[in-house]
Amino acid sequence: MPGTSEPSTSDNAPAPLPAPARRVSVDPEGPVLVEGPVEILLDDGTVARSDRFQVAVCTCRRSRTYPWCDTSHRRRERIAPPTEDRTP
């Protein structure tokens, strides 16, 4: 169960300290942002590793650099250029 420690192997040895938690940010319209470094176990058994301080993990599997999100597949909003007033 998460958050519980395993019993120690010796009566005198202290229980091991839990690993530090990773902070994860979930954006419903984007990737999952994870504090790095990160290792991801892929479906084929290979491991992808990123040593960046924050990693964007693709959740839709459409990224060209999967498992990392490159936002290549996301819609881009086009901003119209400002119109000039040409009245004399």
Question: Please, could you describe this protein's structure?
Answer:
This protein is mainly β. The chain contains no helices and 5 strands. It has a 3-stranded antiparallel sheet, with no helix packed on it. The protein is elongated.
Descriptive key words:
mainly beta, two-stranded antiparallel sheet, 88 residues, 22% strand, three-stranded antiparallel beta sheet, 0% helix, 5 strands
Give the structure's gist in a few sentences.
With 88 residues, the chain is mainly β. The protein contains no helices and five strands. It has strands at 24-26, 32-35, 38-41, 47-50, 54-57.
How much is the average pLDDT? 80
How do the strands line up in the largest sheet?
1-2-5
Amino-to-carboxy terminus distance: 75 Å
Shape: elongated
Give the SSE map:
Elements: E1 24-26, E2 32-35, E3 38-41, E4 47-50, E5 54-57
